[in-house]
Amino acid sequence: MFFTKGHGTSNDFVILPDPDGELDLTPALVAALCDRRRGIGGDGVLRVVRSAKHPAGAGHAAEAEWFMDYWNSDGSIAEMCGNGVRVFARYLIANDLATPGPAGLPVATRAGVMTAVVEGETIRVRMSTPRTYAGSTATIGALTIPGLAVDCGNPHLVCGLHDGVQLAGLDLTTAPLVDKALFSSGVNVEFVEAAEDLPGVDKHVRMRVHERGSGETMSCGTGALAVGAVALREAGLTSGSVAVDVLGGRLVITCDESGAWWLAGPAVLVASGETDLVALS
């Protein structure tokens, strides 16, 4: 099978073209593709399938021709991936599968239809409106950190660091302990510290993330969206921009005057090739 490898701020994906939904994509195959020693390697798989040809995308077929079927590296399915949708849009355009219109390029996901706007090396995506809905905590070893639960089409817990706790010192090799009653389907946990002021944005923060189904990743687009929403809320702002530095680069979250939320950052296609699915099975 042919594949392309891509990344957004080092959040990397194996992209599989399957326009008519003919591939028998299983959790075991996804995990094998994402294996960094025995497969291609990635934080997840983006299957490129026409919305009308996928059960989860058929309801959006009138709005968006293409559906982003996103799987985490452990073979579990996720509702949405902010870095993934930018890379997905880049793939569609680079392979002449879609041409952005004046309003952008619509992409169907399990969290709804997102719109991608190409601005050179940067792709800006209109995202679902983040919704803060509960307070909770995340525990790492002996350290328990309070946070806010944020729904970005997928679940997040944003934990701000205080009292001298350093972002770089956190051990995210294992999943933080969270409230399983509140997060019954798992949760992406973001840890955040303030950063120096930057021109052109209202807030600047640094973030690390432990993603459900993938472990610590270099970046998480929906996680940056959740962090941006909390940062603006804590600043008392109803609109504005937040620069979010992740391990793999920088993302910018903007809530404009109309209340629309945008995620902007790079989207890069690294290589294309062919893999033997039998060898991976």
UniProtKB/TrEMBL annotation:
Catalytic activity: (2S,6S)-2,6-diaminopimelate = meso-2,6-diaminopimelate
Binding of substrate, residues: 11, 72, 82-83, 154, 188, 211-212, 221-222
Pathway(s) it belongs to: Amino-acid biosynthesis; L-lysine biosynthesis via DAP pathway; DL-2,6-diaminopimelate from LL-2,6-diaminopimelate: step 1/1
Active site (catalytic residues): 81 (proton donor), 81, 220 (proton acceptor)
Protein localization: Cytoplasm
Recorded GO MF terms: diaminopimelate epimerase activity
Gene Ontology biological process terms in this record: lysine biosynthetic process via diaminopimelate
Single GO cellular component term: cytosol
Primary site of residence: cytoplasm
Keywords noted in UniProt: Amino-acid biosynthesis, Cytoplasm, Isomerase, Lysine biosynthesis
Pfam families reported for this sequence: DAP_epimerase (PF01678)
Residues annotated as site: Could be important to modulate the pK values of the two catalytic cysteine residues: 156, 211
EC number(s) given by UniProt: 5.1.1.7
PROSITE patterns documented for this protein: DAP_EPIMERASE (PS01326)
SUPFAM superfamilies per the UniProt record, alphabetical: Diaminopimelate epimerase-like
Free-text function comment from the UniProt entry: Catalyzes the stereoinversion of LL-2,6-diaminopimelate (L,L-DAP) to meso-diaminopimelate (meso-DAP), a precursor of L-lysine and an essential component of the bacterial peptidoglycan.
Record-stated family: Belongs to the diaminopimelate epimerase family.
HAMAP family listed in its UniProt record: DAP_epimerase
Subunit: Homodimer.
Annotated protein name in UniProt: Diaminopimelate epimerase
Naturally occurring in which organism (per UniProt): Actinoplanes awajinensis subsp. mycoplanecinus
Lineage, broadest ranks: Bacteria, Bacillati, Actinomycetota, Actinomycetes, Micromonosporales
Annotated gene: dapF
